[in-house]
Design goal:
The chain has 6 helices and 4 strands. It is of the alpha+beta class. The chain folds into 2 domains: 55 residues, Orthogonal Bundle (Arc Repressor Mutant, subunit A), CATH 1.10.10.10; 74 residues, Alpha-Beta Plaits (2-Layer Sandwich). Pfam families: AsnC_trans_reg, HTH_24.
């Protein structure tokens, strides 16, 4: 499942009804996916087997997509975060396929969104420095035609979380 596009995964999912125990399990896993089954069961006030069955059900339903380690970009020397606004004059399927593949092939693109409005796409690009961003930019425009690109350097990360609000 980890190799699939998140949009494809969302399309495959069916709606799941969550109860309070499911919500507690999801909250615990979002804050620390390394918790043992024993720890989760203790914290939600249930035994291991029903908790395991709930987690399996949530995975099978596509609510839990994957479990990952969140790394510190500064510790890895990736100190520059750019938000890249992309406008294109191309809107045909062939261009979109090439553009999306170019984004998927570049590990420095850690998020990419197609937008409504004047800007077509926004990318979050994590690199070592401005020179590394320029290499990324030159490579991207060498591969696909882009009408306009605006890069915004993040001066300070104020909030970053992978935790979703659970309804």
């Amino acid at each position: 499942m980890a190799d699939k596009n998140p949009s494809d995964l969302r399309a495959e999912r069916t709606s799941v009804r969550l109860d309070d125990v499911d919500r507690k399990i999801l909250s615990l896993l979002q804050s620390d996916a390394s918790l043992s089954l024993d720890q989760i069961a203790e914290r939600v006030g249930a035994s291991k087997t029903p908790v395991w069955n709930r987690i399996r059900k949530l995975r099978d339903a596509g609510v839990i997509l994957r479990q990952v380690a969140i790394l510190d970009p500064d510790a890895l020397g990736l100190e520059a975060c750019f938000f890249v606004l992309v406008r294109t004059s191309e809107h045909d399927k062939d261009w979109a396929t090439r553009f999306l593949q170019a984004l998927r092939d570049r590990p420095e693109v850690i998020e990419a969104h197609r937008l409504a409005g004047d800007i077509d796409y926004i990318l979050k690009v994590q690199v070592r420095n401005a020179r590394a961003y320029d290499r990324f930019y030159q490579s991207l425009i060498g591969e696909v035609k882009i009408h306009n690109v605006t890069a915004l350097l993040s001066m300070e990360e104020i909030k970053a979380t992978s935790a979703l609000p659970i309804p």
